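Summary of Year 1 activities. Much of the first year was spent building the evaluation harness for sequence design. The harness presents a backbone, in tokenized form, and records the residue chosen at every position. We chose the following record to illustrate the format because it has been used consistently in internal testing since the harness was completed.
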């Protein structure tokens, strides 16, 4: 081994890079999670129209959400 310090530094950089890459969510994961959440909210919203139970919608809308009807009423 001609350059043991270079090999050691390279290994440390590879391990650090692998750790960072494994700890951050990939854009694909975020997209899949967002898509699943939107689909679940859509189903919950449709169910709440039928049953009148709006408890599940608390997860789908912000606390300060103000809805507007198609006629412009709030």
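For this record, the design step produced the sequence shown next.
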């Amino acid at each position: 081994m001609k350059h043991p310090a270079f090999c050691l530094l390279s290994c440390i950089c590879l391990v650090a890079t692998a750790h960072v890459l494994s700890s951050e969510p990939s854009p694909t994961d975020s997209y899949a999670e967002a898509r699943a959440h939107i689909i679940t909210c859509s189903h919950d919203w449709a169910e709440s129209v039928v049953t009148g139970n709006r408890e599940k919608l608390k997860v789908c809308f912000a606390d300060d959400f103000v809805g507007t009807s198609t006629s412009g009423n709030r």
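Helices lie at 4-23, 27-51. Quantitative recovery figures across the full test set are reported in Table 2.
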